[in-house]
Amino acid sequence: MTNPAAPASPKPGLHPRNRHAHGYDFATLAAITPELARFIVTTPAGSPSIDFANPKAVKALNKALLEADYGVSGWDIPPGYLCPPIPGRADLLHHLADMLAEGNEGRIPTGERVRVLDIGVGANGVYPLIGHAEYGWRFVGVDTEQKSLDNVARIVAANEHLAGAIELRHQPVPDNIFVGVLRSGEKFDLTLCNPPFHASAADARFASERKQKNLGQTPGKGGSNFGGQDNELWYPGGERAFLTRLIEQSAGIPKRALWFSALISKAENLRHVEAALAKVKPTASRIIAMSQGQKQSRLAVWSFVGRAERQKWMLARWG
User: Fold this and answer.
1) Residue span of the signal peptide, if any (predicted)?
2) Sign of CA dihedral 64, 50, 54, 143
3) Cα separation, 236 vs 115, whole angstroms
4) CA nearest to 34, candidates 8, 68, 11, 2
5) Per-residue DSSP letters for 91-106?
6) In this predicted model, what pLDDT tens digit does every residue of 203-251 receive, in sequence order?
7) Would you say 143 and 196 are in contact if contact means Cβ atoms under 8 Å apart?
8) What domains appear along the chain, each with residue ranges and CATH number?
9) What percent helix, strand, coil does the chain show, rounded to 5?
10) Residue 289 — φ and ψ, nearest 5°?
11) pLDDT of 209
């Protein structure tokens, strides 16, 4: 389902199946999404780009990429909501697809038999939109904020091909990650999560203002280039606390998912994630290094399903 064509000079670090590993065709994108055209500028090197410090430009680029490369029409988010970079989100999904291929004779399972739980789907719904376009997987997107779910529902309703592909569920208890949203006997092949970065609203605000200064913006005005609401940006104790809770709660439902996973944005949290994993004793775990330009992150993947059980799981669910 991915495009195997590989122009020269790929961006360093992106997965080889990532559609964006070789830059953007701004002329084609602007033709598909005309509103992007007014944000395109010429760099000192003479190549087209956009001002990535401008949140409106970033949103227009996302809209164009989702329509041009993933067939999603009418994508939009409410003002101030998280507008994540598409290449990085696609990368995470390709790495998880590789995990599913391991032990499956190197074949990535595709189609609706593969079910994925997106914890914190947000208003953008990017993981399910990309994952279904690339691999045909079915998703359940969970969020603590109903407004976010309503926006993803609007996007799904505007695209007939997404009917039945993305289910949305509200989590009314923020400290519960799985309890309250999983149905009786329900199993997932993957769970994924992009945890909140910050430990408090004040920390999130400080980081946003610092980023705005670095981008040459006036702090406190206009928001950051990627935006974000409170529940998208911060959690008591920050990323470390959320990841620790996620790992602990995954151990309470060990056979409800083949692979659990979570993005680790802050390098200093890696050792805490490894310690939390050691405590719950998964049958397998891995840390996958990821990068997009200057941004470095890590993907933690773990399973409580033994190797022999994994073989049975794959045969039963994917044939």
Assistant:
1) none
2) positive
3) 30
4) 68
5) HHHHHHHHHHHTTTTT
6) 544 444 444 454 455 545 545 544 544 554 546 778 999 999 999 999 9
7) no
8) 80-318 (3.40.50.150)
9) 40, 20, 40
10) -75, 135
11) 42
Cα-only R_g, the chain: 19
| pLDDT number for residue 4 | 32
258 in Cβ contact with 310 (< 8 Å) = yes
The Cα–Cα gap between 240 and 233 comes to 13
pLDDT digits (tens, 9 = 90+) for 248-303: 999 999 999 999 999 999 899 999 999 999 999 999 999 999 987 778 899 999 99
- For residues 89, 92, 98, 100, the Cα torsion angle rounded to the nearest 10 degrees is -100
Q: What are phi and psi of 181, to 5 degrees?
A: -120, -25
Could you list the beta-strand ranges (E) of the chain.
40-42, 48-50, 115-119, 138-143, 166-170, 188-193, 257-264, 284-292, 295-303
CA distance 110 to 227: 32
Residue 319 has a pLDDT of 83
